[in-house]
Amino acid sequence: MKPAHQIIDTILLTEKGTVLTEMNNQYIFKVHPDANKQEIKQAVKTLFKVDVTDVRTMNRKGKKKRERRPNYGTTADWKKAVVTLAEGNHIDLT
């Protein structure tokens, strides 16, 4: 198992993520592509000292990027995790 700081890359602060945080106590993280749900749950528990009830993951495909040539490149593929915290727990983002 990888260390927690290698599994959790960043917390994503988006409009959708803010709504999920306010209404459902869910937070969105960018995680290591090889991490599974159990590893993500343990990493969030150890880094933020909160109780996790549910983890949902999705693999996001990289976008096509075009430079000044006719051939295309792509950005890197990445993995996103939506973590639901137990009632009364929250992550302080300030």
Features:
single chain; 94 residues; alpha+beta; Alpha-Beta Plaits; 4-stranded antiparallel β-sheet; 3 helices; 6 strands; 28% helix; globular
How many distinct beta strands?
A: 6
Provide the number of structural domains. Answer: 1
Secondary structural class:
alpha+beta
Which CATH class? Alpha Beta
Strand content: 35-45%
The end-to-end distance, rounded to whole angstroms, is 29 Å
CATH architecture: 2-Layer Sandwich
Which regions are unreliable across 5 or more consecutive residues at pLDDT < 50? none
Task: Specify the CATH homologous superfamily.
Answer: RRM (RNA recognition motif) domain
The rough form would be described as globular
Q: State the CATH topology.
A: Alpha-Beta Plaits
Radius of gyration, whole Å: 15 Å
**Helical content band:** 25-40%
Largest sheet: 4 strands, antiparallel
Describe this structure in words.
The protein is 28% helix and 35% strand. With 94 residues, it is of the alpha+beta class. The protein has one domain: 2-Layer Sandwich (Alpha-Beta Plaits), CATH 3.30.70.330. The strands form 2 sheets. It has a 4-stranded antiparallel β-sheet. It has a two-stranded antiparallel ribbon with strand order 4-5. It starts with a helix and ends in a 9-residue tail after the last strand. The mean pLDDT is 93.
